[in-house]
Amino acid sequence: MSSLPSHSAVAAGDDQIAHAVAHQPGALKRTLKLRHLVFIGLAYMAPLAVFDMFGIVAAETDGHVPLAYLVVIVAVLFTAFSYSRMVRFFPIAGSAYTYAKEAINAHLGFLVGWVATLDYLLLPMINAILSAIYMGAVFPEVPFWVWVVLTVAVCTVMNLIGVKLAASMNIVLVGIQLVVAVVFVVLTIVNISNGANGSEFTIRPFISNDIQLAAISAGAAILALSFLGFDAVSTLAEEAERPERDIPRAIFIIIGVAGAFFITVTYVMQVLFPDVSLLGDIVGASPEIAKYIGGAAFQAIFVGGYMMAVLGCGITQQMSAARLLYAMGRDGALPKRLFGSVNERTGVPVVNVLIVAAIALTALFVDLDQAASMINFGAFIAFTFVNLSVIFVFFRFLKRRGPGAWATFVVVPAIGVVINVWLWLSLDSISMIIGGIWLAVGVVYLLIKTRGFRAPAPDLTGPINIGMYE
Q1: pLDDT in tens, 73-87
Q2: Where in the numbering of this chain does the Amino acid permease/ SLC12A domain appear (predicted)?
């Protein structure tokens, strides 16, 4: 018989865990419901971000963007299942870092957190760069730095006010993005129905005789970043009212909604423009298509909706990065006095929010290509170790190991490991080099801090609610 907990056992344990964690000194406040978590995840991914990567991936996959999305959805679902397993054992902030630290090894957990931190810390910077690029196209007379500073300032203020207000704001922002996207899809369908650009509805974006597996995997490796929102949600486990129930639900709702949205949008775009080389700017393909299907007026609306995506995405990116630093600081992996404290009134890790804001301001000195090349490396490493953590939990903590437990704690995450390593190996050489340098810096830091691994690592306390699983 499987040793997985019953639904009622999990539900009963939620309140006990929430009460225990919420009353620890300096604990984050539990204010987020399921709807907040879902919208935070969707806002983190920024629904309109699908338009950013369309031209690049269409060129990479030779017109098979929807197929690349299907591949990455399968990959993400395996990892999402592992996240849903781990959050039941560790309903605390930190995500991949916490899971690897607690389930495998404290030193290894630190390195996973270090690599993941690169992604989290740089995403707000990339967001600020994108804001300046898009707004600069509409208002070229305004200096680049003005848009960078304004974007970072707004996101920082929203995070300092409190996570619940930021989450509520994201509901509005995601709604605006979805309206713009729906109008975009409708106009595209109308153009296809009218035979614009010689287009017609076809299954070619999903399957054709000229598909190349290496190209599809390379495209999927890029598109995997579109689904980082469910990972961001897992970092909010200490601020969810019922983390064991709501975070797993939010993870799969986010992937289902986002996956359907991404495939639908890219399908109609790919049908209308099967060859993106016909467009003047592959990187800026989406604004060009917006103008093609709806004229200059709709292009302006499209850019305005995109800025809503920038704002919503920036708020949640900064929120997640600050809470990852908080988890590492609280556990002593980073200086606790600086990183491990929260404001008693708002429950916000203020210092961490400001640190992330300062890093985001480096957008003033870094171009988009340089910043983006550093993101992919850490995501797949983090995903790989989340899957590995489930396997380690099985052998370290579960006492009853029935067929169901073997399937969900070993077989499924093992498939997730293979898929993520495959996608990781599909990354370009620049990403591997820069990511490798960042990892090497983390190893050196850890060696110094632990005096060659001789100093004790942060305590391994094991799952808070392990008794329910024995």
Answers
A1: 988 999 989 988 888
A2: 36-441
